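Chapter summary example.
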Amino acid sequence: MFKKEFYIIKVWLSTILFSPFLIFLFSWILLKKDIDAIFGAFKYYLLYAAIGFLFSIPSIIIFGYLYRYLTKRKVTLVQLNLYLCIFSIFSVFTSFYFLGINFLFSNIVFPISYSLVTCLSIIFINKNYSITSSIKS
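The structure predicted for these 137 residues follows.
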Protein backbone atom coordinates (compact mmCIF):
# COMPACT_ATOMS: atom_id res chain seq x y z
CA MET A 1 0.00 0.00 0.00
CA PHE A 2 2.74 2.46 0.90
CA LYS A 3 4.54 1.92 -2.42
CA LYS A 4 1.70 3.66 -4.26
CA GLU A 5 1.73 6.65 -1.95
CA PHE A 6 5.51 6.84 -2.07
CA TYR A 7 5.43 6.93 -5.90
CA ILE A 8 2.87 9.76 -5.83
CA ILE A 9 4.96 11.75 -3.34
CA LYS A 10 8.13 11.24 -5.43
CA VAL A 11 6.38 12.53 -8.56
CA TRP A 12 4.99 15.51 -6.64
CA LEU A 13 8.28 16.47 -4.99
CA SER A 14 10.32 16.06 -8.15
CA THR A 15 7.89 18.36 -9.95
CA ILE A 16 8.03 20.97 -7.21
CA LEU A 17 11.82 20.86 -6.88
CA PHE A 18 12.96 20.56 -10.53
CA SER A 19 10.42 22.71 -12.38
CA PRO A 20 11.84 26.04 -11.17
CA PHE A 21 15.26 25.04 -12.54
CA LEU A 22 13.68 24.30 -15.90
CA ILE A 23 11.90 27.66 -15.80
CA PHE A 24 15.24 29.40 -15.30
CA LEU A 25 16.81 27.38 -18.12
CA PHE A 26 13.91 28.09 -20.52
CA SER A 27 14.01 31.77 -19.61
CA TRP A 28 17.68 31.92 -20.42
CA ILE A 29 17.44 30.02 -23.72
CA LEU A 30 14.05 31.02 -25.14
CA LEU A 31 13.66 34.52 -23.81
CA LYS A 32 17.36 35.37 -24.25
CA LYS A 33 17.62 36.74 -20.75
CA ASP A 34 21.00 37.79 -19.47
CA ILE A 35 22.72 34.97 -17.57
CA ASP A 36 23.32 37.29 -14.61
CA ALA A 37 19.59 38.01 -14.45
CA ILE A 38 18.87 34.28 -14.45
CA PHE A 39 21.30 33.62 -11.61
CA GLY A 40 19.78 36.57 -9.77
CA ALA A 41 16.38 34.95 -10.14
CA PHE A 42 17.54 31.87 -8.22
CA LYS A 43 16.71 33.76 -5.04
CA TYR A 44 13.09 33.16 -6.05
CA TYR A 45 13.58 29.40 -6.18
CA LEU A 46 12.07 28.79 -2.73
CA LEU A 47 9.15 31.04 -3.60
CA TYR A 48 8.46 29.08 -6.81
CA ALA A 49 8.73 25.80 -4.91
CA ALA A 50 6.42 26.99 -2.13
CA ILE A 51 3.82 28.31 -4.57
CA GLY A 52 4.06 25.08 -6.58
CA PHE A 53 3.57 23.09 -3.39
CA LEU A 54 0.46 25.02 -2.34
CA PHE A 55 -1.26 25.21 -5.69
CA SER A 56 -0.56 21.60 -6.63
CA ILE A 57 -2.25 20.07 -3.58
CA PRO A 58 -5.69 19.65 -5.24
CA SER A 59 -4.13 18.24 -8.40
CA ILE A 60 -1.93 15.75 -6.57
CA ILE A 61 -4.88 14.49 -4.53
CA ILE A 62 -6.82 13.79 -7.73
CA PHE A 63 -3.63 12.36 -9.29
CA GLY A 64 -3.36 9.96 -6.35
CA TYR A 65 -6.93 8.78 -6.73
CA LEU A 66 -6.47 8.38 -10.50
CA TYR A 67 -3.26 6.41 -9.98
CA ARG A 68 -4.92 4.09 -7.47
CA TYR A 69 -7.94 3.63 -9.76
CA LEU A 70 -5.82 2.86 -12.82
CA THR A 71 -3.56 0.42 -10.98
CA LYS A 72 -6.63 -1.57 -9.93
CA ARG A 73 -7.64 -1.87 -13.60
CA LYS A 74 -5.92 -4.01 -16.17
CA VAL A 75 -4.05 -1.19 -17.92
CA THR A 76 -0.60 -1.54 -19.37
CA LEU A 77 2.30 0.51 -18.09
CA VAL A 78 2.21 2.59 -21.28
CA GLN A 79 -1.50 3.32 -20.81
CA LEU A 80 -0.93 4.18 -17.15
CA ASN A 81 1.83 6.63 -18.07
CA LEU A 82 -0.26 8.13 -20.86
CA TYR A 83 -3.35 8.68 -18.70
CA LEU A 84 -1.33 10.17 -15.85
CA CYS A 85 0.58 12.48 -18.20
CA ILE A 86 -2.61 13.69 -19.90
CA PHE A 87 -4.21 14.40 -16.54
CA SER A 88 -1.08 16.15 -15.28
CA ILE A 89 -0.78 18.42 -18.31
CA PHE A 90 -4.46 19.29 -18.06
CA SER A 91 -4.24 20.00 -14.32
CA VAL A 92 -1.11 22.16 -14.66
CA PHE A 93 -2.58 24.32 -17.40
CA THR A 94 -5.91 24.54 -15.54
CA SER A 95 -4.14 25.64 -12.36
CA PHE A 96 -2.22 28.36 -14.17
CA TYR A 97 -5.38 29.45 -15.97
CA PHE A 98 -7.22 29.89 -12.66
CA LEU A 99 -4.26 31.85 -11.32
CA GLY A 100 -4.84 34.33 -14.14
CA ILE A 101 -1.76 33.47 -16.17
CA ASN A 102 -2.29 34.29 -19.81
CA PHE A 103 -0.54 31.92 -22.15
CA LEU A 104 1.57 34.36 -24.09
CA PHE A 105 5.05 33.31 -25.13
CA SER A 106 6.80 34.61 -22.02
CA ASN A 107 4.26 33.09 -19.62
CA ILE A 108 3.94 29.71 -21.33
CA VAL A 109 7.35 28.78 -19.87
CA PHE A 110 5.78 28.15 -16.46
CA PRO A 111 3.10 25.56 -17.34
CA ILE A 112 5.33 23.89 -19.93
CA SER A 113 8.12 23.48 -17.37
CA TYR A 114 5.82 22.00 -14.74
CA SER A 115 4.11 19.72 -17.30
CA LEU A 116 7.40 18.49 -18.74
CA VAL A 117 8.95 17.69 -15.36
CA THR A 118 5.77 15.98 -14.18
CA CYS A 119 5.54 13.79 -17.28
CA LEU A 120 9.21 12.87 -17.09
CA SER A 121 8.76 12.01 -13.42
CA ILE A 122 5.71 9.88 -14.19
CA ILE A 123 7.63 7.95 -16.83
CA PHE A 124 11.02 7.55 -15.17
CA ILE A 125 10.25 7.14 -11.48
CA ASN A 126 9.96 3.44 -10.72
CA LYS A 127 6.37 2.40 -10.06
CA ASN A 128 7.02 -1.29 -9.32
CA TYR A 129 3.92 -1.83 -11.43
CA SER A 130 2.82 -4.83 -13.41
CA ILE A 131 -0.61 -6.01 -14.43
CA THR A 132 -0.27 -9.15 -12.29
CA SER A 133 0.72 -7.17 -9.19
CA SER A 134 -2.28 -4.89 -9.65
CA ILE A 135 -4.60 -7.91 -9.86
CA LYS A 136 -3.22 -9.42 -6.66
CA SER A 137 -3.67 -6.25 -4.58
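To summarize the output: The radius of gyration is 16 Å.
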